[in-house]
Amino acid sequence: MDFSCYPQLGKHGEKHRSCGQKCVNNGQPIGLLTREGALYMLMPEEHDPRDGGVDGKASGSDHMGHIVQVTGTEASVNGYRGIFVQGLKK
Q1: Residues 7, 48: Cα–Cα separation, whole Å
Q2: Among 49, 54, 79, CA closest to 69
Q3: Whole-number average pLDDT of the chain
Q4: Rg (CA), the chain
Q5: Which among 5, 17, 35, 49 could disulfide-bond with 65, CB atoms 3.0 to 4.6 Å apart, if both were Cys?
């Protein structure tokens, strides 16, 4: 999901797919909403997709509104949660 519409309006899922793709392609952060309701920001592993990490923008847009499995390194600081993504699959 995108970090623009979900926190503000609660929109996510397949019905929100095309809008979420527009948000991500226009620079909004990419998020992952877990089944338990936890919200994570997704970031490329090692901070640089050219080094073999997942291109977060392309993957996030392609899988917007889908249920996916994400692998990577979880980080949490002062209530903010993130995953440095190593892999993402539907």
Answers
A1: 26
A2: 54
A3: 82
A4: 12
A5: 17
Cα dist. 43→15, 32, 37, 39, 81 in Å?
Answer: 24, 11, 19, 13, 11
- Report the alpha-carbon distance of residue 66 to residue 50 in Å, rounded: 25
Residues 52 and 34: their CA atoms lie apart, in Å, by 25
Residue 40 confidence (pLDDT) above 90:
yes
Across the range 57-83, mean pLDDT stands at 86
User: For residue 75, what pLDDT is reported?
Assistant: 92
DSSP letter, residue 16: G
Inter-residue contact 65 to 27 (CB < 8 Å)? no
- How many other C-beta atoms lie within 10 A of the C-beta of residue 13? 14
Phi, psi of 52 (to 5 degrees): 105, 0
What is the pTM assigned to this prediction? 0.77
Residue 65 and residue 6 in contact, taking contact as beta carbons nearer than 8 Å: no
